[in-house]
Amino acid sequence: TPKALSIQQPWSFLIVSGFKDIENRSWPTTFRGRFLIHAGKRYDGDRRDWDWPEILKPPDFALGGIVGEAELIDCVTKSDSLWFCGPYGFVIRNARPLPFKACRGALGFFTPS
Predict the structure, then answer these.
(1) Could you tell me the sign of the dihedral formed by the alpha carbons of 101, 105, 108, 112, in that order?
(2) Nearest of 62, 44, 14, 41 to residue 104 by alpha carbon
(3) What is the rounded CA–CA span in Å between residue 63 and residue 40?
(4) Would you say 95 and 37 are in contact if contact means Cβ atoms under 8 Å apart?
(5) Minimum mean pLDDT among 45-49, 71-75, 90-94, 109-113: which range?
(6) Of the candidates 98, 100, 105, which has an alpha carbon nearest to the alpha carbon of residue 17?
(7) The 88-102 sheet, strands edge to edge
(8) Which residues, 6 or more positions from 92, have their beta carbon under 8 angstroms from its beta carbon?
(9) How confident is the model at residue 97 (pLDDT cuts 50, 70, 90)?
(10) Within a 10 A sphere around the Cβ of 105, how many other Cβ atoms?
């Protein structure tokens, strides 16, 4: 079973849709490879506050389950990505959405139930 990482919406949507290429964390990781993207149960910020007019906002955001997968290729402390705000950035590529599958999240990388 692949590992998963819980990422709040709208960030998980932006990653699996191919817009966001880095995930900011307060901790580093040595993990590299494919992982599942879990959308947390909470939305980060105000749902009405959508700052990306060039990205079509979905009518609803899936919460509390697996929403996609991606490949983590590096962990950096500096990046030219407009999404990077650190202190650590998990560099992501080959992200894609998957059919929603409800499951419980956890801190760090975890094995979904």
Answers:
(1) negative
(2) 41
(3) 6
(4) yes
(5) 45-49
(6) 98
(7) 22-25, 88-102, 65-76, 33-43, 4-9, 109-110
(8) 15, 20, 21, 22, 23, 70, 71, 72, 73
(9) very high
(10) 20
Measure the CA–CA gap between 47 and 21, rounded to whole angstroms: 21
What proportion of the chain, given as a percentage, has pLDDT over 70?
A: 100
DSSP label at residue 53? T
Residues 10, 42: Cα–Cα separation, whole Å: 10
Which residue, 66, 54, 85, is CA-closest to 13? Answer: 66
Can you read off the two tokens belonging to residue 63?
Answer: 């919460």
> 63-84 burial by CB neighbour count: b if 16+ within 10 A, else e?
bbbbbbbbebeebeeebeeebb
